[in-house]
Amino acid sequence: MLKNTPFFIGLRYILSKKDNRVISFTSLVSMAGLTLGVLAIVIVLAVFNGAQGEQRQRTLITVPHADIYTRGAFPRWQEAASLLSEQASVLSVSPYISLESMLSTNGIHQVTEIKGIIPQAELQTSDIEASMLQGSLEDLKAGERSIILGRSLANALRLLPGDAVNLIVPELSDNSSRLQLNMHTFTVKGIFDVQFSIGANLALIHLEDSAELSGLDDIDEAVRLRLKVDDIYAAANTVESSLELLNLALPGPEYMGEDWSVSEASLFNALKMEKIMTWFMLMMIVAIGAFNIISTLVMVVSEKKSDIAILRTMGASQGSIMGIFIIQGLLIGVSGTLLGAVLGLLIAANFEFMGELIEMLFIPDGMFMLSSIGTDIQSQDVILTCFFAVFISLLATLYPAWKASRIHPAEVLRYD
Hints:
single chain, 2 domains, 14 helices
């Protein structure tokens, strides 16, 4: 029977409770190192994912899910908006014009981005109304020269609703290439706060007022279409299908487009790289725990040389001896990995509660809000971490197992 073969006899004996206390202690240390490393990675990545999700959500308050525009004029943008809104993946479409300008008041100057919008359409494509601290998007009226400011911008200019601000726009004169500055006075109608750097210095005006500021004869010359999609992760596919639809239905202009992952690629690529580097550094904890397996197995091999020699005389091959010690090391690695993953998932899933408990016991009121940190557990992160933890554990077993397989029975048993 298989259980009476030298391999299984040796495996039962090597894993028996006859190990001395030093070996048992080092095994526990190795397992604890793996547990701590995997636990730390699962929790930190869950916090990273939660923070990235929050940043993405706040970014997309002011940044379009998808953006459709033309290289030149966009004469049939209203028809295009109607066509695009009929797509199953598109929830709503709104036009806007973007321009760079300077706001000035009381000797304070601030260069910023101005977006001309139609309030009723913007309410359907963005969540900026929910971020309004004072006023409403509907306070923007065509021809009234009203403006809504981001909170950081309003603070920098020291403005409140009802105050006047000068909006300065550069423009090329009609008869020459000389640049001239046109100044217009607007009244602050509201202040919003997206609680993120992107959009903090944005200013909103009515679409018709933005055309006048830009010196355009018609909105068609600079208008773009903002799309709100049902799945932000498939926004690139929506852009592609939208361009195909417009080229077929409304040929003429050179249609172009991009989704949020392209327009804000630098930010999200940096966040992705930060997550990867953090994962890599935390894997060093796992590696330390895994390499402790080497010392544990080396001690086992040293203590059980005579037992290994006896197994060899019973017919155990070198491969069988290697397999015995690889399995012992993997038991430590798998046990530590699974325990760390389970504990990490439990802590990450209850991070808000644990944060509140830590705040109550150790953190003075209002100094730091651990409970406000969100978590997002992604299965691929947990699986990848566990896989590499077990893989590193496997690598750590190879050298001691090889050393055990190289023991010569005659040399060991010569003096026994």
